[in-house]
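so my prof wants the structure for this chain in the tokens format not the other one, which i didnt know existed until like an hour ago. anyway here's the sequence
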Amino acid sequence: MQEPRCESPEEGEVMTEMRRVTAIRNGTVIDHIPSGYAMQVIRILGIDTDRATPVSLVMNVPSDKIGRKDVLKIEDRELDQEDLDRLALIAPAASIAIIRNHAVAEKMKVELADDLLNIARCSFSNCITKNNHEPLPQRMRVVSQDPLEIRCYYCGCGQEIDELIENII
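here's what i got, hopefully its the right format
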């Protein structure tokens, strides 16, 4: 089978792979999301499915870096540090490109911090943070990054990644 080929408008050079999703003018591209986790990323970033601007999603594509991956392109939204902290729970190896005027203006790496402050609520029903009379910040401690192990700073309970996603602030 012959590789897909298309003529580039610049100098007639030949491209050997077709683009799966169109380029965006302004926004964010999140690459190297573990395969199958793009919908959770959309959820933890609070991306409204009824938004007027496009969100492009490519799932389960080949990746030299992680085997298979998902990719998100979000028009007209730039991620901030709080978004990156949330994203690190699901995609600690993701790379972020901020796009302005169809060009990469900024590149960022997602890094999982040792302490997560006000990212997610503790899932333990008896944790002191559940008490409305104790206004404590939601604080998690990353015990291990591989395999991922996160514990509540106050009660010490281990947090499952699916529960953390459910309890994102």
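also thought this was worth mentioning. The first strand starts at residue 6 and ends at 7.
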